[in-house]
Amino acid sequence: MIALILQLGLWVNTNGSEQHVPCPILYEQEQRLPVGCMVLNQGVLFSPSHYIETKVNQAGDKAKIIALQEQVALLRAELLNAQNGLTKCLTQPAPSTTQPFIYGVLAGSIISGALLWNK
Fold first, then answer.
1. Are 12 and 36 in contact (CB under 8 A)?
2. I need a surface site. Which of 2, 36, 59, 78 has the fewest CB within 10 A?
3. What is the pLDDT of residue 1?
4. Residue 15: left (phi > 0), alpha (psi -120 to 50), or beta?
5. What angle is formed at CA 32 by the lines to CA 28 and CA 35, rounded to 5 degrees?
6. Going by DSSP bridges, is the β-strand pair 18-22/8-12 parallel, antiparallel, or unpaired?
7. What is the pLDDT of residues 82-118, one digit of tens each?
8. pTM of this prediction?
9. Are 74 and 58 in contact (CB under 8 A)?
10. What pLDDT is recorded for position 47?
Protein backbone atom coordinates (compact mmCIF):
# COMPACT_ATOMS: atom_id res chain seq x y z
CA MET A 1 0.00 0.00 0.00
CA ILE A 2 1.34 3.41 -1.00
CA ALA A 3 0.77 6.19 1.46
CA LEU A 4 0.80 9.78 0.30
CA ILE A 5 2.33 12.04 2.91
CA LEU A 6 1.18 15.62 2.69
CA GLN A 7 4.08 17.96 3.29
CA LEU A 8 3.45 21.45 4.64
CA GLY A 9 5.58 24.52 4.11
CA LEU A 10 5.63 27.96 5.67
CA TRP A 11 4.28 30.75 3.47
CA VAL A 12 5.09 34.35 4.41
CA ASN A 13 2.51 36.83 3.14
CA THR A 14 3.36 40.38 2.03
CA ASN A 15 1.89 41.78 5.26
CA GLY A 16 4.30 39.61 7.29
CA SER A 17 1.79 37.03 8.48
CA GLU A 18 2.73 33.38 8.19
CA GLN A 19 0.64 30.36 7.39
CA HIS A 20 1.25 26.68 6.75
CA VAL A 21 0.26 25.56 3.26
CA PRO A 22 0.60 22.22 1.46
CA CYS A 23 3.67 21.91 -0.75
CA PRO A 24 2.96 21.64 -4.48
CA ILE A 25 3.12 18.17 -5.98
CA LEU A 26 3.26 19.06 -9.69
CA TYR A 27 5.69 21.58 -11.12
CA GLU A 28 4.42 22.71 -14.51
CA GLN A 29 6.15 26.10 -14.57
CA GLU A 30 8.47 28.32 -12.55
CA GLN A 31 6.95 29.07 -9.18
CA ARG A 32 7.78 30.22 -5.69
CA LEU A 33 7.68 27.56 -3.02
CA PRO A 34 6.82 27.79 0.64
CA VAL A 35 9.77 27.53 3.02
CA GLY A 36 10.47 23.90 3.91
CA CYS A 37 9.09 22.34 0.73
CA MET A 38 11.38 20.01 -1.15
CA VAL A 39 12.33 20.83 -4.72
CA LEU A 40 11.70 17.86 -6.95
CA ASN A 41 13.07 19.41 -10.17
CA GLN A 42 16.20 21.48 -10.65
CA GLY A 43 15.70 25.18 -11.18
CA VAL A 44 12.20 25.37 -9.74
CA LEU A 45 13.03 27.21 -6.53
CA PHE A 46 13.81 30.91 -6.91
CA SER A 47 14.13 33.58 -4.30
CA PRO A 48 11.81 36.54 -5.01
CA SER A 49 14.74 38.84 -5.85
CA HIS A 50 16.25 36.28 -8.25
CA TYR A 51 12.87 35.68 -9.89
CA ILE A 52 12.31 39.43 -10.44
CA GLU A 53 15.88 39.87 -11.73
CA THR A 54 15.39 37.00 -14.18
CA LYS A 55 12.15 38.48 -15.50
CA VAL A 56 13.74 41.94 -15.91
CA ASN A 57 16.71 40.41 -17.76
CA GLN A 58 14.36 38.47 -20.03
CA ALA A 59 12.45 41.65 -20.88
CA GLY A 60 15.72 43.46 -21.67
CA ASP A 61 16.91 40.57 -23.82
CA LYS A 62 13.62 40.56 -25.75
CA ALA A 63 14.00 44.30 -26.43
CA LYS A 64 17.57 43.71 -27.69
CA ILE A 65 16.36 40.91 -29.96
CA ILE A 66 13.65 43.13 -31.46
CA ALA A 67 16.18 45.94 -32.06
CA LEU A 68 18.60 43.51 -33.73
CA GLN A 69 15.82 42.09 -35.92
CA GLU A 70 14.99 45.62 -37.10
CA GLN A 71 18.67 46.27 -37.81
CA VAL A 72 18.92 43.02 -39.79
CA ALA A 73 15.87 44.04 -41.85
CA LEU A 74 17.50 47.40 -42.69
CA LEU A 75 20.78 45.74 -43.63
CA ARG A 76 18.95 43.26 -45.85
CA ALA A 77 17.25 46.14 -47.67
CA GLU A 78 20.61 47.88 -48.18
CA LEU A 79 22.15 44.63 -49.43
CA LEU A 80 19.31 44.15 -51.90
CA ASN A 81 19.77 47.71 -53.22
CA ALA A 82 23.51 47.12 -53.60
CA GLN A 83 22.90 43.83 -55.43
CA ASN A 84 20.42 45.52 -57.79
CA GLY A 85 22.92 48.31 -58.50
CA LEU A 86 25.68 45.79 -59.19
CA THR A 87 23.40 43.82 -61.49
CA LYS A 88 22.64 47.02 -63.47
CA CYS A 89 26.36 47.78 -63.77
CA LEU A 90 27.15 44.30 -65.00
CA THR A 91 24.30 44.07 -67.52
CA GLN A 92 24.76 47.50 -69.17
CA PRO A 93 27.01 47.40 -72.25
CA ALA A 94 30.39 48.96 -71.63
CA PRO A 95 31.74 51.51 -74.08
CA SER A 96 34.18 50.06 -76.57
CA THR A 97 37.85 50.77 -75.90
CA THR A 98 39.07 49.58 -79.32
CA GLN A 99 37.02 52.07 -81.34
CA PRO A 100 39.03 55.19 -80.29
CA PHE A 101 42.25 53.25 -80.90
CA ILE A 102 41.21 52.38 -84.46
CA TYR A 103 40.18 56.01 -85.14
CA GLY A 104 43.56 57.16 -83.81
CA VAL A 105 45.49 54.70 -86.03
CA LEU A 106 43.48 55.67 -89.09
CA ALA A 107 43.87 59.38 -88.43
CA GLY A 108 47.63 58.96 -87.84
CA SER A 109 47.99 56.95 -91.04
CA ILE A 110 46.14 59.54 -93.08
CA ILE A 111 48.18 62.39 -91.65
CA SER A 112 51.45 60.48 -92.14
CA GLY A 113 50.50 59.61 -95.69
CA ALA A 114 49.59 63.22 -96.43
CA LEU A 115 52.89 64.44 -95.03
CA LEU A 116 54.86 61.89 -97.03
CA TRP A 117 52.88 62.67 -100.16
CA ASN A 118 53.68 66.36 -99.90
CA LYS A 119 57.47 65.76 -99.74
1. no
2. 2
3. 39
4. alpha
5. 125
6. antiparallel
7. 988 888 877 776 666 666 777 777 777 777 766 666 6
8. 0.38
9. no
10. 66
